[in-house]
Write a structure and sequence with these properties.
With about 280 residues, the chain is an alpha+beta fold. The protein is about 55% helix and about 10% strand. It has 13 helices and seven strands. Strand 2 (about 195-200) and strand 3 form a beta hairpin. Helix 1 packs across helix 2 (about 30-35) and helix 10 packs antiparallel against helix 11 (about 170-190). The longest helix is centred in the first third of the chain and has 19 residues, at about 5-20.
């Protein structure tokens, strides 16, 4: 890695770790830059180049994603969650939450399953991977241990059709609406004990805990039968379609193999109009 790339990687990971460790604390973008020993403008430029989003937007998306998890998995009140993630009023929090999730916190709590990984933590190696390793965009650490406790069962992999085109030809805001709609469909089809996690820009996985091909196929088809349905965007609509593949995790995997296996499954699914059951290599 070139010296410049090493320096950028160090700045990126330092900023990422600082943000993630302080999501429930008050801090400014200047505080992040100070920890990284760089100017705020340099940090903002690097962050947008690496993630195609601003620092402010990333922090907001991470806080609101974790707020959703707390809404579903704790007895905390909306105002307690708002204060935890540094929103100074119920109204400000509800407005921000509704913009990201499409529904108010009270509705979200009733409609969503316990899986709501809309914007997981970015992979620490993401910037490095952009040059060298092709790593997945999001950190899948929390999935790793859970998955290895459920060997002999199927994982469903989902891929949004044409998200890059939507981002490029319409806007990334429209792309975010498509990502949310896709997660809603996957979440609705998942059982309560089937975690769903976003692992890439347009990719999700669901740990079904099932070894029955027919049951797994039924879940995937429940998602895919909504293909072509639209999501609202700025007075118009954007069509949303999802492809799906499945793979049985036959034995505990090394962390380095996890995303490789999912990549293979999604690659098969892109060339198959049906639910594709892949025989991915698991060394």
């Amino acid at each position: 890695m070139r010296k410049e790339d090493q320096n950028n990687f160090c700045i990126f990971t330092t900023a990422l770790d600082y943000i993630e460790h302080n999501l429930c604390s008050e801090f400014t973008q200047e505080d992040i830059a100070a920890v990284c020993y760089c100017s705020l403008s340099a940090l903002q430029k690097l962050w947008r180049y690496a993630t195609h989003t601003s620092l402010k937007e990333y922090i907001s998306k991470r806080r609101l994603t974790n707020a959703g998890i707390d809404l579903l998995n704790t007895d905390m009140t909306v105002i307690d969650i708002a204060m935890k993630y540094q929103y100074n009023s119920h109204e400000v929090f509800t407005r921000a939450f509704t913009k990201q999730w499409g529904v108010a916190p009270s509705v979200f709590k009733k409609e969503w399953n316990k899986s709501c990984g809309l914007f997981p933590k970015l992979n620490r190696d993401y910037l490095k991977g952009a040059y060298y390793m092709g790593n997945k965009k999001f950190d899948v650490t929390e999935l790793f241990d859970y998955l290895n406790e459920r060997t002999g069962t199927y994982v469903l992999c989902f891929d949004i059709v044409g998200l890059m085109r939507i981002n490029d030809e319409i806007s990334r805001e429209a792309g975010d609406k498509v990502i949310l709609e896709s997660l809603k469909r996957i979440n609705a089809a998942a059982g309560e004990d089937m975690p769903v996690l976003r692992i890439g820009g347009d990719e999700f996985v669901m740990v079904t805990g099932l070894d029955d091909v027919e049951k797994v196929t039924k879940i995937a088809k429940a998602v895919m039968e909504k293909n072509g349905g639209e999501t609202a965007y700025k007075g118009g609509t954007v069509p949303v379609s999802i492809r799906s593949g499945a793979v049985m995790i036959r034995k505990p995997l090394k962390y380095s193999m996890l995303c490789h296996v999912f990549d293979e499954v999604i690659s098969f699914a892109r060339n198959d109009g049906e639910v594709h059951f892949a025989k991915a290599e698991q060394k």
